[in-house]
Amino acid sequence: MLPLDPRGLTLATGRPVEVLSSCDSTNRVGREVARDLLAAGPLPGTLPVIVAEAQTAGRGRLGRAWQADPGANLLFSVLLAPDLPVDQAPRAVLCWAAALAEVTGAWLKWPNDLVDGQDRKLCGILAEHEAGPRPGRVGCLVLGIGLNVNQVDFPGLPQATSLRALAGAPWDRQPLLVRLLRALDAVDPAAPGALDAWRRRSRTLGRRVRVAGVEGLATGLREDGALLVDGRPILAGDVELVAGGGVSPPT
Predict the structure, then answer these.
(1) Lowest-confidence range among 68-72, 80-84, 140-144, 165-169?
(2) Within 10 Å of residue 208's Cβ, how many Cβ atoms?
(3) How do residues 182-233 score in pLDDT, each as one tens digit?
(4) ∠ at Cα 4 (143, 49), nearest 5°?
(5) Which of 51, 98, 152, 217 could form a Cys-Cys staple with 198, CB 3.0–4.6 A?
(6) Bond preceding residue 111 cis, omega within 30 of 0
(7) Counting Cβ atoms within 10 Å, is residue 79 exposed (0-12), middle (13-18) or buried (19+)?
(8) How far is Cα 114 from Cα 101, in angstroms, rounded to an integer?
(9) Predicted pLDDT at 249
(10) Comparing C-alpha atoms, which of 68, 65, 99, 60 is closest to residue 82?
């Protein structure tokens, strides 16, 4: 696989892009960069992207390890500073997940996994917040993304897949990353109807789920990003799709 070109990525996206041959976690590096920027004063208008060809301690949600073949996938963290209250950050992450899904043709599992039409995982997202000078407002969000692009074997992970496995051909990672970064930058999480893109690509709504000790039908997505299960809002958790559960149109 061709290595990623940081200069080309920077020119194409307008963001400073650093490509590391290896690191423990792009989110760990990204949070350090975010803290340094916040300590220096107001954030610059253009924030950096940290990309790694390999990670030695990649992390997903709930502290899970994220394993990926070196040079095969896209492992990157994007620094973002939406002018939002902290309690609206989960909504923003859903909007960014939907943007990634539209570029890749993937579907979405609440809250922020990208999956194929058989619910096999393509991409995981881990959002972490660094507080800024304004209490209660987002300082800097570090959005960590692990996208399975050209990896074809996933030992011990039968529910994982990749873009290459689905397409039957390898993907050029450089233009794909450019498209993903441009799509993220085009999102306005505060815009009315911003969550409609997530709803359109959902593989969770209308299905029977088990999450946070609750089992029922995922009937909708609230405007703050909460999943409605039989009308009850769930703000955080790991969704399990219940086999044989009924399906009805999402709302």
Answers:
(1) 68-72
(2) 19
(3) 999 999 999 999 999 999 999 999 999 999 999 999 999 999 999 999 999 9
(4) 25
(5) 98
(6) yes
(7) buried
(8) 6
(9) 40
(10) 99
Q: What is the 3-state secondary structure (H, E, C) of 198-211?
A: HHHCECCCCEEEEE
> b or e along 98-119 (b: 16 or more beta carbons within 10 Å of the residue's beta carbon)?
bbbbbbbebbbbbbbbbbbeee
Beta-carbon count within 10 A of 192 CB: 8
Query: How far is Cα 13 from Cα 147, in angstroms, rounded to an integer?
Result: 19
Cα angle 100, 128, 14 (rounded to 5 degrees) comes to 50
Among the listed residues 81, 103, 79, 100, the one whose alpha carbon sits nearest the alpha carbon of residue 17 = 79
Domains of the chain and any CATH numbers: 6-200 (3.30.930.10), 208-241 (no CATH)
Q: Where are the alpha helices (DSSP H) in the chain?
A: 6-13, 26-40, 89-104, 163-167, 173-185, 196-200
Number of Cα atoms under 13 Å in the Cβ half of residue 12: 18
Rounded to whole angstroms, the Cα distance separating 148 from 161 reads 7
3-state secondary structure of 56: coil
Could you tell me how far CA 142 lies from the centroid of its own chain? 10
Amino acid (one-letter) located at 43: L
3: nearest Cα among 49, 52, 50:
52
* Residue pLDDT, tens place only, 144-193: 999 999 999 998 888 999 999 999 999 999 999 999 999 999 999 999 99
Type of residue found at 6: P
